[in-house]
Amino acid sequence: MIFDYNVIWDSLPLYFGGVLVTLKLLLISLFIGLLLAIPLALMRVSKSVFINFPAWLYTYVIRGTPMLVQLFLIYYGLAQFELVRESALWPYFSNASFCACMAFAINTSAYTAEILAGSLKATPHGEIEAAKAMGMSRIKLYRRILLPSAIRRALPQYSNEVIMMLHTTSLASIVTLIDITGAARTVSSQYYLPFEAFITAGAFYLCLTFILVRLFKLAERRWLAYLAPRKH
Amino acid sequence: MLNGYGSTILDGAWLTVILALTSMAVATVLGLLGAAFRLSPIKWLAVLGETYATVVRGIPDLVLILLIFYGGQDMVNRVAPMLGYDDYIDINPFVAGVFTMGFIFGAYLSETFRGAFMAIPKGQAEAGVAYGMSNTKVFFRILVPQMIRFAIPGFTNNWLVLTKATALISVVGLQDMMFKAKSAADATREPFTFYLAVAALYLVLTSVSLLALRYLEKRYSVGTKAAEL
């Protein structure tokens, strides 16, 4: 028998548990990443070198190094310092879920910040002039005009980033978490059926990817309708 | 340097560079094939190309690496006895790594190349035909040189992602710089130092690539004018 269905059928609960872990990791890291990305994006569009440069350096370094290295630096690396091991935060830093979420959030914040900064820079000049002509303050200009429209226009690129992050969460299996990939690795080593185990994991990811693509299509239809080509 | 582990890590870095370059070569070939399939007027070829691109891009790199590396090995050894070959076949991690990365990034590149071919104005190929060039000549003399210019930004991006993704091959035991750093970290109990060194090396690699590809982009854009905003 070339493909063993029974084992996969029996391990489906393990995979569904993995789906929950994957989604939890994805949602937490995307949420924190987005919170970090907005101030970073604002820094990236600043004309002042002292504000712009730190944010540029942050995104450059994070985007220039592999996710796996960042994850290992946080999960294995920080334990090297006694200061960290004896601090009150050690229970968190010795926890794989916490470290994975933190590493993923930092990673996605850099990519998201660049997407948002690009979108902010692409704001039509007339909108800003109009806001100034209405006598809006800088803060009001950002809050009412720039950010809402920039975040909307960033949606198509952000959907790519979200799918990349879904794929990135598979690295959590390397630091012992049982997400979808972790479930597949467990099945693979328990029954020695690597082919079946990873094909199933791939199918789960494919479904999740399609669902995300679909959701973003709906979101774009809702929030980017004004940019869609005219139908008549 | 680095408790004497500096040179082993540099050896690993060399392997990473070689792995990335050979994988990119394989990926470029597969990407061009994929793009040709997807643009082909023959229906089943187009469907095949589309399936390849969609499925591979929908699954995480790590899962594909584990699938091809462990699953592929397993499959080969399940199928080989049926063909009358009874020895256990052990796949070389470097070869497996190159083909896995090439297979994955070929799908991403097929998207880049397809977009680049479609960005060439129709009149260009028509003009070539009007001059009496054969289809092959039109393809290599007119389409390919212009396609390269449109493909460079996407190609740069894919190259950077691929370079960083090679770190994942260490998970299946290829002794690249990530693997060497892990061994050194385990031996000296100084993980932060070694992973930081590897991060710095990757940063050098990506920075050099960015500069090189920016130069290439300038070269291929000679004679075109950028839109001024």
TrEMBL record, chain A:
Main location: membrane
Domain of life from the UniProt record: Bacteria
Any Gene Ontology biological process: amino acid transport
Gene Ontology terms: cellular component: ATP-binding cassette (ABC) transporter complex
Keywords: Amino-acid transport, Cell inner membrane, Cell membrane, Membrane, Transmembrane, Transmembrane helix, Transport
Pfam families, sorted: BPD_transp_1
Molecular function (Gene Ontology), one example: transmembrane transporter activity
Transmembrane regions: 12-43, 55-78, 90-111, 162-185, 191-213
Membrane topology listed for this record: Multi-pass membrane protein
Subcellular localization: Cell inner membrane; Cell membrane
Domain ABC transmembrane type-1: 19-216
CDD domains the UniProt entry points to: TM_PBP2
Oligomer status and interactors: The HisPMQJ complex is composed of two ATP-binding proteins (HisP), two transmembrane proteins (HisM and HisQ) and a solute-binding protein (HisJ). The HisPMQ-ArgT complex is composed of two ATP-binding proteins (HisP), two transmembrane proteins (HisM and HisQ) and a solute-binding protein (ArgT).
Family to which this protein belongs: Belongs to the binding-protein-dependent transport system permease family. HisMQ subfamily.
NCBIfam families membership: HEQRo_perm_3TM (TIGR01726)
UniProt name for this protein: Histidine/lysine/arginine/ornithine transport system permease protein HisM
TrEMBL record, chain B:
Name under which the protein is recorded: L-arginine ABC transporter membrane protein /L-ornithine ABC transporter membrane protein
Domain of life: Bacteria
Molecular function GO labels: transmembrane transporter activity
Family of this protein: Belongs to the binding-protein-dependent transport system permease family. HisMQ subfamily.
Subcellular location as annotated: Cell inner membrane; Cell membrane
Occurrences of domain ABC transmembrane type-1 (ranges): 13-213
Gene3D superfamilies registered for this protein in UniProt: MetI-like
Pfam families for the chain: BPD_transp_1 (PF00528)
A GO CC annotation given for this chain: ATP-binding cassette (ABC) transporter complex
